[in-house]
């Protein structure tokens, strides 16, 4: 499992893994444990000398592969549902599966996550029914799972706002005395490269730092904020911003599920042990559009997309499992079949989602209600009832 | 029952202390609220007695104060945030309007944000720009927030505790120029028996015209009523106390008797609370009105330089002038 696992050395095997190295060829300062060709790297060094490694059982490797495939398939189904008019909008995670599954599986049950609106893979890892965000994008509700039940906050559409919520929550964890041991709680805040320009994100860096909050900032740098490339947000690699705020930063290959897991697990464990915040920049690529309303051909060239296609997170995992004989064709076929079944099931349930009763728009505005709103609701109900039995 | 004479500021301080004593989940956070006790000393002595985990000096970032308070609330705390001055709340506006106000609605009731946002507001203290504004309409216009304001020490003491005990997110506006005015405060009366938070109250009964005011303008309206009485005209003054939701029950009853109504606030008139109140009173009391509802407000300018604020702010004479006009219609 994560770095420091006593059995790690004994269980690392096969394929004569390359020894540790600081960065993958051609990539700047990138922690990588699985190359795009599916070669395992035994361990990798972060910029501060931290050594990252994983040592999963075969079952665990296969589990990560299954997660990646399922998450991609369900996401593709949601995109299709939008194209067919069944969702108003969809923000696809295509290309970012490894960053999300790696970090999502690195969370321990007691850890709390604060997502953006694209963390469908993390949501899946937290055990939330994948139909939940589709209610939001279909427009039948506002995505109302119980954040405290699943330790996964509601999606946040306003860019970067959730990083402050995560910081406050993490301050609360420390105030509750829930850090300092293996059973300590940690918090993870998801955001993107565009969000790093937001005041709220920079304020959350300041706050997390001075209050030593048990928090991991997990930035999926997918290279674009809708149409704007990374160069419009920053002149330095994003992970290096952490230094100026007084905590460590690391850049990980976000298309490598193993490295994403290792780096996140390490950062979360540091946080839960009371060692404060850190920043992870998961270097990845948004293969699809920003949302279904976007047309990426207007601002990026095909060759760039093709270059990232060659770094696909699922293809490299499949190559690794095949080469190492951890999985065979029957396994891959079984996973594909499961993905197909679950996506069909998802589609059926989305189509069956009822529209809410109009009068429910008045529900839950205030925990204690409001006399004014009660009056409006009564007037509206009466107005609606006036149509009953009419020909309209 | 212990009744003490306190300033409005000290009454708030005492109410905050009680809230900290009664619920370990209450935390106070803001700029300079700790050692300094706040620039108006409203949190004076609280960090010393409750520690820096309960009374938190924050970095100088208003969005950060409110945004982290949202996270603390999700975690189960009851944050009481101080915004140092009215004109400094705007960096936090997004967090207040898009996050604090909507969290309960979006989660279909699963997430509560029992937060109080304390803001010293209004003019009359000779301050430089951004220190004298009345931003209540911005918040009263936002569904999901409640907005209240106190006008005397007793209400300050009681209402701050009620706001903290409420699960609704509440913007609590403090009339900063009245911080030093004194009045009797019953300290031991149980909160459960107190006058409700979201209810207006008749501050002075009268028969000839109704004057509606809130926060710093209640004192002005009462002074106007005293002056009017000397001329033989009895004004009924109603302290609105709750700005969202509005409670106009007493106002309707009053206007049906008097037939005349003047609304007073410091904030600019255009689309201010007075506009909404005038519309509702017209809808409810149309056949009782002897004249249109008139508004006495700040002007539609930025808050002016301090040497002319006396002319900008509604005062006794402008209130009486409006009352006269309702009689001359």
How does this structure look, described?
The complex is a heterodimer of chains A (392) and B (329). With 392 residues, chain A is an alpha/beta fold. Chain A folds into 2 domains: 8-351, Rossmann fold (3-Layer(aba) Sandwich); 365-392. Chain A contains 14 helices and 9 strands. Chain A has helices spanning 8-11, 58-83, 97-106, 120-125, 132-138, 147-150, 161-175, 199-210, 241-245, 257-272, 302-309, 313-323, 329-351, 371-385; strands spanning 44-45, 51-52, 112-114, 187-192, 215-221, 224-225, 228-229, 249-253, 278-283. In chain A, the strands form 3 sheets. Chain A has a 5-stranded parallel β-sheet with strand order 3-4-5-9-8, sandwiched between helices. A two-stranded antiparallel sheet of chain A has the order 1-2. In chain A, strand 8 (249-253), helix 10 and strand 9 (278-283) form a beta-alpha-beta unit. In chain A, helix 2 (58-83) crosses helix 3 (97-106), helix 2 (58-83) runs parallel beside helix 13 and helix 7 runs parallel beside helix 8. Chain A is globular and about 70 Å long. Chain B is of the alpha/beta class and 329 residues long. Chain B folds into 2 domains: 3-190, Thiamin diphosphate (ThDP)-binding fold, Pyr/PP domains (Rossmann fold, 3-Layer(aba) Sandwich); 201-327, Rossmann fold. Chain B has 12 helices and 14 strands. Chain B has helices at residues 8-22, 46-50, 62-75, 93-100, 103-106, 136-140, 153-165, 217-230, 249-258, 273-285, 309-312, 316-327; strands spanning 3-7, 26-30, 55-57, 78-82, 116-121, 146-149, 170-175, 182-186, 201-204, 209-213, 235-239, 242-244, 261-268, 294-298. In chain B, helix 2 links the parallel strand 2 and strand 3. The longest helix of chain B is centred in the N-terminal third of the chain and has 15 residues, at 8-22. Chain B is globular, with a radius of gyration of 19 Å. The model of chain B has no long low-confidence stretch (mean pLDDT 98). The A-B interface holds A 114, 141-148, 153-154, 156, 158, 161, 163-173, 175-176, 199-200, 203-204, 206-207, 210, 363-368, 370-373 and B 27, 53, 58-59, 61, 63-64, 66-77, 91, 94-95, 98-99, 103-112, 114, 143-144, 146, 166-168, 198, 244-247. Chain A: Residues 1-28 are annotated as: Disordered. Chain A: Residues 11-21 have a biased composition (Basic residues). Chain A: InterPro entries: Alpha-ketoacid_DH_E1_comp (IPR050771), DH_E1 (IPR001017), PdhA/BkdA (IPR017596), THDP-binding (IPR029061).
């Amino acid at each position: 499992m994560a770095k420091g696992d006593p059995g790690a050395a004994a269980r690392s095997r096969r394929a004569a893994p390359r020894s540790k190295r600081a960065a993958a060829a051609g990539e700047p300062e990138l922690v990588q444990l699985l190359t795009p060709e599916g070669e395992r790297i035994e361990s990798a060094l972060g910029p501060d000398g931290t050594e990252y490694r994983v040592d999963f059982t075969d079952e665990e490797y296969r589990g990560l592969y299954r997660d990646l495939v399922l998450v991609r398939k369900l996401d593709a189904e949601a995109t299709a549902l939008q194209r067919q008019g069944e969702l108003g909008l969809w923000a696809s995670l295509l290309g970012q599966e490894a960053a999300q599954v790696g970090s999502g599986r690195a969370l321990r049950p007691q850890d709390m996550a604060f997502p953006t609106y694209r963390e469908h893979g993390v949501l899946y890892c937290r055990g939330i029914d994948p139909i939940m965000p589709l209610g939001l994008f279909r427009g039948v509700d506002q995505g109302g799972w119980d954040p405290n039940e699943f330790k996964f906050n509601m999606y946040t559409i306003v860019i970067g706002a959730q990083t402050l919520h995560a910081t406050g929550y993490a301050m609360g964890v420390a105030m509750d005395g829930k850090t300092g041991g293996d059973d300590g709680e940690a918090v993870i805040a998801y955001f993107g490269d565009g969000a790093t320009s937001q005041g709220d994100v920079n304020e959350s860096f300041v706050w997390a730092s001075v209050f030593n909050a048990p928090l991991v900032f997990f930035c999926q740098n997918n290279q674009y904020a809708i149409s704007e490339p990374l160069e419009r947000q920053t002149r330095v690699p994003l992970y290096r911003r952490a230094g100026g705020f007084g905590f460590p930063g690391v850049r990980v290959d976000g298309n490598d599920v193993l490295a994403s897991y290792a780096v996140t697990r390490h950062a979360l464990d540091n946080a839960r042990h009371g060692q404060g915040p850190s920043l992870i920049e998961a270097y990845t690529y948004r293969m699809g559009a920003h949302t279904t309303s976007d047309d990426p051909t207007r601002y990026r060239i095909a060759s760039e997309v093709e270059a990232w296609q060659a770094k696909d997170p699922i293809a490299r995992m499949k190559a690794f499992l095949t080469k190492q004989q951890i999985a065979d064709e029957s396994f891959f076929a079984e996973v594909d079949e499961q993905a197909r079944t679950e996506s069909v099931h998802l589609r059926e349930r989305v189509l069956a989602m009822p529209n809410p009763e109009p009068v429910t728009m008045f529900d839950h505005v205030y925990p204690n209600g409001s006399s004014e709103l009660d009056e409006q609701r009564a007037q509206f109900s009466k107005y609606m009832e006036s149509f009953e039995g009419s020909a309209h | 029952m212990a009744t003490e004479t306190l300033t409005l500021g000290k009454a708030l301080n005492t109410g905050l202390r009680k809230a900290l004593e009664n619920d370990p989940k209450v935390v106070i956070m803001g700029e300079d609220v700790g050692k300094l006790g706040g620039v108006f000393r409203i949190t004076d002595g609280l960090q010393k007695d409750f520690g820096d985990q309960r009374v938190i000096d924050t970095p100088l970032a208003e969005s950060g104060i409110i945004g982290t308070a949202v996270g603390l609330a999700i975690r189960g705390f009851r944050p009481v945030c101080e915004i140092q001055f009215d004109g400094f709340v705007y960096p936090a506006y997004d967090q207040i309007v898009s996050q604090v106000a909507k969290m309960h609605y979006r989660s279909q009731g699963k997430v509560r944000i029992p937060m109080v946002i304390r803001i010293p507001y209004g003019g009359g203290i000779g301050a430089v720009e951004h220190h004298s504004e009345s931003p209540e309409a911005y918040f009263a216009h936002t569904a999901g927030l409640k907005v209240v304001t106190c006008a005397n020490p007793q209400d300050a003491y009681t209402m701050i505790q009620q706001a903290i005990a409420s699960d609704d997110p509440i913007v609590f506006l403090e009339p900063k120029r009245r911080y030093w005015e004194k009045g009797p405060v019953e300290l031991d009366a149980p909160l459960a028996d107190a006058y409700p938070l979201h209810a207006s109250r008749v501050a002075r009964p009268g028969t000839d015209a109704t004057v509606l005011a809130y926060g710093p303008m209640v004192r002005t309206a009462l002074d106007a009523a005293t002056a009017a009485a000397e001329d033989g005209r009895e004004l009924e003054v109603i302290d609105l106390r709750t700005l969202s939701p509005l409670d106009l029950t007493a106002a309707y009853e009053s206007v049906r008797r008097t037939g005349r109504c003047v609304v007073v606030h410091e904030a600019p008139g255009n689309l201010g609370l007075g506009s909404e109140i005038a519309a509702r009173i017209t809808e409810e009391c149309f056949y009782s009105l002897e004249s249109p509802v008139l508004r006495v407000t700040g002007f539609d300018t930025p808050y002016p330089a301090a040497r002319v604020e006396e002319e900008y702010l509604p005062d006794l004479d402008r209130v009486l002038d409006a009352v006269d006009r309702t009689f001359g219609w």
